[in-house]
Amino acid sequence: MSTPIVKQLFIHPVKGLTSQECDRATGGPEGDRVFLTEGHGIKGDRAFALMFLDIEIETETFLEHNKSFIPTLQNINWMSKTNCAVQNDWPALAALNCHYDFITQFLTVKKEGKILLNVNTNTKLGRVRISRFFTKYLKKFDPTPEARHSARSPVVLVGSSNGNTRYPDRETAHISLVNQATLDQLSSLSEKTVDVRRFRSNIVLDGIAPWEEFNYIDQTFQLGDAHIYITAKINRCVNIEINPETGERDLPLLSLLKENFGHKQMGVLATVVKSGFVQIRDRLTPLENG
Fold first, then answer.
1. Could you give the CA distance from residue 50 to residue 69 in angstroms, rounded to a whole number?
2. Which of 48, 98, 104, 257 could disulfide-link to 17, CB 3.0 to 4.6 Å?
3. Residues 283/5, Cβ–Cβ less than 8 Å
4. pLDDT of 129-174, one tens digit each?
5. Are the C-beta atoms of 275 and 36 separated by less than 8 Å?
6. Beta strand 175-179 with 203-206: parallel, antiparallel or unpaired?
7. Cα–Cα distances in Å, from 95 out to 11, 130, 182, 218, 247?
8. Sheet strand arrangement including 114-120
9. In angstroms, what CA-CA distances link 150 with 19, 24, 36, 90, 145?
10. Which residues contact 3 (CB under 8 A, 6 or more apart)?
């Protein structure tokens, strides 16, 4: 059996916004590697979220008179994604190019190369500006029919700049892995290159057959210095059909999966059972007595 190796590493500093590749150019909390933490996952991944405030008041009034309140939301506990602005409800978020610098703690937002926002996430003014920006941005667009919030609800940035908070889709801490060969097969079937960022995974594996990753369920592996336990296949939502550059829903990948494979699953989830660093070209090796 072939041994998979790590091809790419990704984190998503703000839930629902741009995937950020961990390499020497962009980096993450640990530069071109990631630290898998037992009981937590990857530090810095989904460390922030844009939480809806379900209140029927004028957004400008709220943001003007509650500046001291917004920064206090840094350490709010995990919440369901139904409380957050995410791409499957608000595809227009994908049209923004967002980058978080873990050293300066600045969030930069660009669109078509133009800087729209560049602020410190660890200051009161910075948090107010981020909350105001995304509240105004979402008001310009219609959500998907299935979206749970109206554009009237303001959003505020929650999460801590130290990366200790985390807002994944599931409360149980996890990481996600996707197989490059499986992705290549989808690209062949769709007759278009399917961008790996559509799946918002943390680790891209290479060197194994398509769908081989599904055979790893209920097994423990060494990955770099860490140990992970692969728990389940990932059921996918409409987010995989959204172009990560334009925000347009342009590929019917859910239908393609269902018609060709009889399911809507792609990639696997894993929990971290021993902390350690992982970097490009590390091997995923089964442990005998995991």
1. 15
2. 98
3. yes
4. 999 999 999 999 988 887 877 666 888 899 988 777 889 888 888 9
5. yes
6. parallel
7. 18, 17, 26, 37, 5
8. 97-101, 106-111, 114-120
9. 25, 40, 36, 11, 10
10. 207, 208, 283, 284, 285
pTM, two decimals, is 0.89
Contacts with 71 (C-beta within 8 Å, 6 or more apart), sequence order:
123, 124, 127, 128
| Residue 11 near residue 168, CB atoms below 8 Å | no
Distance CA 235, CA 259 (A): 15
The one-letter code for the residue type at 132 is R
Residue that is written with structure tokens 């917004």 in the block: 70
SS (HEC) of 181-222: HHHHHHHHHHCCCCCHHHHCCCEEEECCCCCHHHHHCCEEEE
**pLDDT tens, residue by residue, 191-209:** 999 999 999 999 999 999 9
Q: Biggest alpha carbon distance in the chain?
A: 61
Domains of the chain from N-terminus onward: 5-41+169-286 (2.40.33.20), 48-159 (no CATH)
For residue 181, give Cα distances in angstroms to 11, 195, 201, 205, 270.
Answer: 21, 13, 15, 8, 19
Cβ pair 37, 11 in contact under 8 A:
no
| Structure tokens that stand for 11 in this block | 């984190």
